[in-house]
């Protein structure tokens, strides 16, 4: 299978079968390499595998040897570079393939054959499929973070580390911003603004490997920063800490007890929805009050970082969590009108997006 070491990809695009697209950047090419390679061999039985690898050269070379004959292993296209390296990898992969059905996944996502088959079947009827991740194995910090998924499920939608998308719908939307932190929400909103058909599949469970403890701790404020893209949620999370302090000051232990009970009940509701009890243990619901306390504190820290210019991610500072649905809808209407006037192509456009506040912040594509 072909490789590319710098610049744009130089491989023959995979055709025919669905594509499994994995953008990654590892500083250490040894840890977990054997396990991931074995997993990719299984996926390659059903999909063409494309890995867009932004790792340093020695690590990239080691990966190239390990994945020879397993996957198309390419470098990110520098013309598509953005602050969020995952977006650069996704857009490089999308432009490098011809497959219509594409599964996009982080390097810790582990599909089994049943989940992969089902998500591809759902993609026959829509443009974007959003499954549900769960952690397995489940160390203490993964159980803690699972409480976040249960709260999300209770309130509406959880956001996994994998989606499946139809390539033409992705291209017709133009592109999605690579200078945001919450890239999955940005992708969802961008496609939705372009009229894509989105299928939420909260009963489609896809396994995810838990992060290490250090990585988990490093994700606390970053995950809270994502809420800046959802103002009502952010307001509720910012209110958690003042409400708890007020209750403690007034010696309202019954208020705190009621809040703890309500948090557990909410998480348990999320656990029971759409068959979640099959993959989420009861202890995850019991940890919901602790997770909400953490989020209440981290939300204020995230706001402080926002006021100081943004949060560091992948060695770069990112200001925006994601654009609002209204902004993306307005931009799509503007591009559509421009296409009708003959000022730009109606589809497979990339350079049309420009942020009003930062004119050069959105990558051109195609």
Characteristic terms for this protein:
8-stranded mixed beta sheet; disordered C terminus; 10 strands; 366 residues; Spore Coat Polysaccharide Biosynthesis Protein SpsA, Chain A; globular; alpha/beta; 2 domains
Identify low-pLDDT runs. 4-11, 346-366
Biggest sheet features: 8 strands, mixed
Q: Which class do the helix and strand fractions yield?
A: alpha/beta
Percentage beta strand = 5-15%
CATH architecture of the largest domain: Alpha-Beta Complex
Describe this structure in words.
- Helix 5 (140-155) crosses helix 11 (253-272), helix 5 packs across helix 13 (288-307) and helix 7 crosses helix 14 (325-340).
- A hairpin with a 2-residue loop joins strand 9 (311-313) and strand 10 (316-318).
- The protein has 2 domains: 19-214, Spore Coat Polysaccharide Biosynthesis Protein SpsA, Chain A, CATH 3.90.550; 215-318, no CATH class.
- By secondary structure, the chain is α/β, with parallel strands linked by helices.
- It is globular.
- The chain has helices at residues 33-43, 57-66, 85-96, 113-122, 140-155, 167-172, 183-193, 213-218, 220-225, 231-249, 253-272, 282-286, 288-307, 325-340, and strands at 19-24, 48-53, 72-74, 101-105, 109-110, 128-135, 162-166, 198-208, 311-313, 316-318.
- The protein starts with 18 loop residues before the first strand and ends in a 26-residue tail after the last helix.
- The strands form 2 sheets. It has an 8-stranded mixed sheet with strand order 3-2-1-4-7-6-8-5, sandwiched between helices. It has a two-stranded antiparallel ribbon with strand order 9-10.
């Amino acid at each position: 299978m072909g490789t590319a070491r710098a610049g744009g990809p130089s491989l023959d695009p995979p055709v025919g079968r669905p594509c499994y697209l994995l953008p990654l950047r590892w500083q250490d090419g040894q840890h977990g390499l054997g396990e991931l390679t074995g997993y990719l061999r299984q996926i390659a039985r059903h999909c063409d595998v494309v890995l867009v690898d932004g790792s340093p050269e020695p690590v990239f070379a080691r990966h190239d040897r390990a994945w020879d004959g397993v996957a198309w292993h390419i470098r990110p296209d520098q013309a598509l570079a953005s602050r969020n390296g995952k977006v650069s990898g996704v857009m490089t992969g999308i432009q490098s393939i011809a497959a219509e059905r594409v599964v996009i996944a982080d390097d810790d996502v582990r599909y089994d054959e049943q989940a992969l088959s089902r998500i591809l079947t759902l993609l026959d009827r829509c443009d974007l499929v959003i499954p549900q991740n769960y952690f397995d194995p489940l160390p203490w910090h993964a159980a803690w973070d699972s409480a976040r998924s249960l709260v999300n499920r209770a309130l509406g939608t959880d956001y996994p580390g994998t989606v499946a998308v139809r390539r033409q719908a992705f291209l017709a939307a133009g592109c999605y911003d690579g200078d945001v932190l919450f890239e999955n929400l940005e992708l969802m909103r961008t496609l939705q603004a372009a009229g894509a058909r989105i299928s939420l599949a909260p009963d489609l469970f896809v396994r995810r490997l838990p992060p290490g403890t250090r990585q988990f701790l490093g994700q606390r404020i970053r995950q809270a920063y994502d809420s800046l893209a959802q103002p009502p949620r952010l307001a509720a999370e910012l209110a958690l800490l003042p409400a708890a302090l007020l209750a403690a000051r007034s010696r309202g232990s019954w208020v705190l007890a009621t809040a703890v009970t309500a948090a557990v009940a909410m998480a348990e509701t999320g656990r029971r929805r759409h068959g979640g009890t099959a993959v989420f243990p009861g202890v995850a619901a019991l940890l919901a009050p602790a997770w909400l306390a953490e989020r209440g504190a981290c939300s204020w820290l995230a706001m402080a970082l926002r006021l100081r210019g943004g949060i560091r991610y992948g060695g770069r500072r990112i200001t925006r969590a994601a654009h609002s649905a209204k902004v993306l809808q307005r931009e799509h209407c503007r591009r559509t009108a421009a296409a009708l006037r003959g000022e730009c192509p109606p589809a497979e456009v990339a350079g049309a997006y420009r942020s009003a506040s930062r004119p050069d912040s959105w990558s051109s594509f195609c």
